[in-house]
Amino acid sequence: LGGACLLGVGIWVIVDPTGFREIVAANPLLFTGAYIMLAMGAMLFLLGFLGCCGAIRENKCLLLFFFMFILLIFLAELSAAILAFIFRENLTREFFTKELQKHYLRNNDTDVFSSTWNSVMITFACCGVNGPEDFEVVPLLPYSSLERSTPEACCLRELQSREGMFVDREACLLGVERFQNRQ
């Protein structure tokens, strides 16, 4: 069951139509991680199947494959731990904040990266990586009339979805904290 769940999440990250893939693709290491998750899910699913069938039928061949897969997974986990230790500086809040500030185009829903971040912020009632201050260095869109604008995705909504009504959109965009998601 764990392998099937991991396989499902891996497939979802790779083919997600809302563009979650674009956030993952911002870092090649994370994009590779999605494929590793997919492969590991398939292997765990196969491993569970071989282990159960081998134990029920008491088949030495299936149990040998089960052992080989366990050994392979152990080696993969060991190498993943080593890679995570080596590249740990790429998986920090600062990295994600820098990527957000470099690629985010505010309320531009034609850009996949921005649209995905907006969807994530609306769905999880959050704002950026650290909070609305992440967007202070993001340039305003040319048609924006506000001097310091928070993205609409950071505004509180009565229902946390794109269709949800804003509590107070103008106050939120002007920076009034009680109308913004501060997480």
TrEMBL record:
Gene name, Swiss-Prot/TrEMBL: Tspan18_2
SUPFAM superfamilies per record: Tetraspanin
Family to which the UniProt record says this protein belongs: Belongs to the tetraspanin (TM4SF) family.
Protein name: Tetraspanin
GO cellular component: plasma membrane
Regions crossing the membrane: 29-50, 62-87
The organism's place on the tree of life at top rank: Eukaryota
Subcellular location: Membrane
Keyword annotations: Glycoprotein, Membrane, Transmembrane, Transmembrane helix
Membrane topology type: Multi-pass membrane protein
